[in-house]
Every structure is written in C-alpha cells, then in structure tokens.
Design goal:
The chain is α+β, with helices and mostly antiparallel strands. The protein folds into 2 domains: about 140 residues, no CATH class; about 325 residues, Outer membrane efflux proteins (OEP). The chain contains 15 helices and 8 strands. Strands 2-3-4-5-7-8 form a 6-stranded antiparallel β-sheet, with helices on one face. β2 and β3 form a beta hairpin. The two termini are about 60 Å apart.
C-alpha cells in the first residue's frame, strides 16, 4: 500500500502517457526512420523515362513508348523495335511470373510490422453459488446465494524500443443473499504494466532488425527483377535483329538463285549457237544447286528465329504460332561513340543489379549480426506494475461506503543460459556469412570488370568489321562485273564467274551480319552496363519502387 495522494498523482501522469504510446504503436515509422536511414542513403539504379542521346536504335517517333495497337488476328503483326519490347514486357509469361516476386516479398514486411501491433483482449464471466445452513427448529435449511458478473479489457503492445506496455481495466458486480442480510458490491480495477529490457532486446536496432531485413529482401527482389527485365529486353532486341537478318538472308539467297538461273539460260543459249562448250554448263548448274541449298537453310533458320520471337512476344490469339510478322525498323550502321571504358566500368559497378544485390546482402548480414549478438546477452528486464481498485458496498440497512486500494510492484527479472552454445554458434555463423558475402562482392566486381571490358572490345570489333565488310562487298561487286565482262569475250570460264558470284553473295551476307552483330554487341554492352532499360525509355513500376 502507498500514500493515496502520491499514487493518484503517479497514476494521473502514467496512465495518459501509456495510452498515448499505445495508440500510435501500430504506426511506428517514427522509430524506424533513424534505423532505416542507411537503407535510403545508398543510391539505387535509377530508370529514366527518356532514352539517352547516344541510343543506337532508330525508332519511329509516333510509336515510341506506345503499346502495340489492336489489329485483327488475320492481319500481319507489325512491330517496331520499341513495340516489340513493350509487348514482351507486358505479355511474356515467364516475366509475368517474376513480376509478382516483389509484391510477395512485401507481404513479409507487413508480417514483421505486425509484431508491433497493439493487442486488444477482453473477457466476460458470470458465476453463481449457493450454500445452505441447518437452522434449528425449522423444517427446511436456510439457503444463501452469491452471484457475480464481471468483465475486463486489456490493451498491450510492443514498442521498437523493446518496451512492453499494457493497460488493464475491469469491473465486477457481486450480490450476496445471506442468511441474515443482503449485500451488493461493485469493484472497479485498472492498472498499468510496463516491462523494459535492459540488456537483451533493448533498443530499436535489435527490435527493428527483422523488419529492416524484410525491407532489404524486398529491394533485393526488385534488383533481381531489374536484371530479369534487362535480360528479357536484350533477348527481344537481339531476336528482333536476328529476325531482320534471317529475312535479309532469304532475300539475298533468293536474288542470287534467280541470277544463277538466268545465268544458266544465258550459257545454254551461247552453247546452242556454238560460242561455249557444253562443259561450261556443269559449273553453272552446280552453282544453282548450291544457291538452292543456301535458300533451304535460310528458310529453316528463319522459321526457328520466328518461333523464338513469337515465344518472347507471346501476342495471344489462336493463330499466334502461324501469324505473319512484319518488322518495321531496319538495322542501321550509324557510328556510336562509347567513350572511355573506365567511365563505363564505373557506371556498371554502380548500376549493375547483381552488385546492388550483393551490397544489400552484406547490409542484411550486418543486421543478422546485430540480432545474433543480442542473443548472447543475458535477459534482464525491469518491470513496473501499478494498480488501483475501488469498491462500493450497499447494505440494506446502512449507507453506501466507498473504498480504494492502491498497489504497485517494481522489480527485475534475470535469465541466462549457461554456456549459451546455440546462440554463440548462431552469431559466429552470421559473422562468417558477412565475410563470405564480402568476398562474393569482390569476386562479382571483378567479373563485372571483365564483362564490360570484353563487351566494349566486341562493340569496337564489330564496328570495324562493319566498315571492312562494306568495302569487301564493293570489291566483290567489281570483281564479278570484271569476270562477267571477261566471260562474254571468252577470256574467263563459267566456273570463275560462279566463284566470283558466290563470293559476292557471301560478302553481302557478311555485311548484313556485321551490321546486326554490331547492334547486338551494343545491346549486350548496354545490358552489362545496366543502362539498357534507361536507353530504351522503359520504366517498370515494380522496379521504380526500388529508388
């Protein structure tokens, strides 16, 4: 028991204070702000809504950033490169599965926040008891009864500081019908319970560790999605140009076959008039057969590329596997200055999703160290319990009497597992995991260096090859023209003409391949640099939240 005046003053301060702490406990962002500042301080890979100025791909201005318009399934599916990319991001089945991962991971954040939700509980009860007494001189025993009804409410929450706060309030009504008199009693109780850890589970760093780990897992899943999106865009773009190349190869082989057949007809006419020997016909016929073989292979390659392209686009419809495609953008061999390779490497080290994932995993490991280090501490909790009970009694023959009782309890609770080997092993595992994650980051940074530098070399190689194959094609055209002139005046043979023609076809194919390979090398470089989405003006909402 304590002095009533002091207790009333103490309860008058503590009860409103605890109530103010309990009510906003479900929204504790204020506690988390300081602890989560490190999460927001690291810049994430930003995705712009505009392509960079040195973007190599020529896109139709009216189609950039727009979805593919709805057209009849009987019509060809006409696509610019940008439309193909957008359609694949919207429709590709595998990517749609991956897009759900950040949302699923975010549910774990909500689950960890629920640890700090206030818990409201209550109960209601009613009891009745009867007793009897043998009264001398009476035939029946005298019966006494007691009836009690009561209810209680409590509100309890855990704060990020580790403090457990609880409020209790209850009321009990009792009536006793006694042997000689009846009594009504009312009791009102309310109290405050406070438990504050002093060692284990003390402070927001420990108690918010699991929530912050869940938030880091969400950001990791967003970086993983970014990497998958970049890989999908790169695959679509490269397949787009492969489709263009396959179409162009068919055109070249078809044209060359027609020319070879016309050449046979010319040889036959000259044989008929006696200007050529029949032996010249064999070389020309062999060349026609060779062109047909090349055309067959080109058609087969085109069919395979088309199937892959449709799988990436996933356009829908009952005839999607047989639907005709029409490519609107053509490959351009415009020069692209990549700039200094060191600058590109540093950009990749800052933007690559794998690097950012590794950094977040290290930070997540640091949080695990905080959590496991907490487990090494003994449990020492300070608890305070304050209670107040007021009574009101009514006697049938007396006036009402009021009474109050006050009580408080304060103390310490201690607990420690001797040896504590499980917690020590857990903490050592957390330390080793962070060390391993740092080594993995170092290795990954080295791989990124190699990736970007190798891709840079490939872009430069194919840029030079584009110029070289263009010059070769012009020389082959001149060589064929000269050989034809010599053949017409009888100074060459059909075999030499066929060989010159075959060389020209090969050089035309090589020129188109060099242009397409140059574009594909650029795509690989931009993907390895992690600037591909930015350059193509692609923003994915699930990735945007990672900023």
């Amino acid at each position: 028991m304590v002095n009533r005046g002091k207790f009333d003053l103490l309860m008058g301060y503590l009860f409103p204070l605890c109530l103010c702490l309990l009510l906003p406990a479900c929204n504790f962002s204020g506690f988390a702000n300081d602890e989560e500042q490190a999460d927001r301080s690291r810049p994430a890979a930003k995705v712009s809504t505009e392509p960079e100025e040195d973007s190599q791909v020529s896109l139709s201005a009216e189609n950039t950033g727009k979805a593919t318009p709805e057209i009849s399934e009987s019509e060809p599916l006409r696509l610019t490169l940008q439309e193909a990319i957008l359609q694949s991001l919207d429709n590709n089945a595998a990517f749609q599965v991956d897009r759900l991962t950040p949302a699923l991971q975010r549910t774990y954040e909500t689950e960890e926040r629920a640890e700090f939700d206030p818990v409201l509980s209550g109960e209601f009860s009613k009891t009745r008891a009867k007793t009897s007494e043998d009264v001398r001189g009476q035939a029946d025993d005298e019966v006494a009864s007691a009836t009690s009804t009561g209810g209680a409410l409590s509100l309890e929450t855990l704060l990020p500081t580790g403090t457990t706060l609880g409020l209790e309030a209850g009321r009990t009504n009792s009536r006793e019908d006694g042997f000689t008199s009846d009594t009504d009693t009312q009791a009102n109780q309310y109290g405050i319970n406070i438990t504050q850890p002093l060692l284990r589970s003390f402070g927001p760093r420990v108690n918010l560790a699991n929530l912050r780990k869940a938030k880091l897992d969400t950001r990791i899943s967003q970086y993983e999605l970014q990497g998958l999106a970049e890989a999908l865009v790169a695959e679509v773009e490269k397949t787009y140009w492969d489709y263009v190349l396959a179409e162009r190869q068919i055109e070249i082989y078809t044209d060359s076959l027609e020319i070879a057949e016309q050449y046979i007809n010319e040889i036959k006419e000259r044989i008929n008039i006696g200007k050529l020997a029949e032996t010249e016909l064999a070389a020309a016929e062999a060349e026609v057969a060779r062109r047909r073989e090349d055309l067959i292979n080109a058609n087969s390659n085109f069919a395979n590329v088309r199937l892959l392209f449709i799988r990436l686009l996933n356009p829908g419809g009952s005839n999607r596997w047989t639907r005709e495609l029409e490519i609107l953008d053509k490959p351009l061999a415009a020069p692209l200055e990549l700039g200094d390779v060191e600058t590109r490497v540093q950009k990749a080290l800052a933007l690559r999703p794998e690097i950012n994932e590794a950094l977040l995993r290290i930070e997540k490991g640091d949080l695990e160290i905080i959590r496991t280090r907490n487990g090494l501490l003994p449990k020492l909790d300070l608890f305070i319990r304050l209670g107040n009970t007021s009574y009101s009694e009514t006697f049938s023959s007396k006036n009402n009497l009021d009474g109050k009782e006050y009580a408080y309890e304060i103390g310490l609770q201690f607990e420690y597992a001797l040896g504590n080997r499980a917690k020590k092993a857990e903490h050592e595992r957390a330390l080793l995991s962070v060390e391993q994650a740092k080594e993995m980051l170092n290795n990954l940074q080295g791989l990124v260096q190699v990736d970007v530098r190798s891709a840079y070399i490939e872009v430069e190689r194919f840029r030079e090859q584009t110029e070289a194959t263009k010059a070769t094609r012009k020389l082959r055209e001149e060589a064929l023209r000269v050989e034809n002139e010599k053949f017409r005046v009888g100074k060459s043979t059909a075999f030499l003409v066929a060989q010159a023609s075959r060389d020209l076809v090969a050089s035309r194919i090589s020129e188109v391949e060099a242009v397409v390979n140059h574009l594909k090398a650029q795509v690989d470089f931009f993907r390895l640099e992690s600037s591909l989405l930015e350059r193509r003006g692609i923003v994915i909402p699930e990735i945007e939240t990672a900023k």
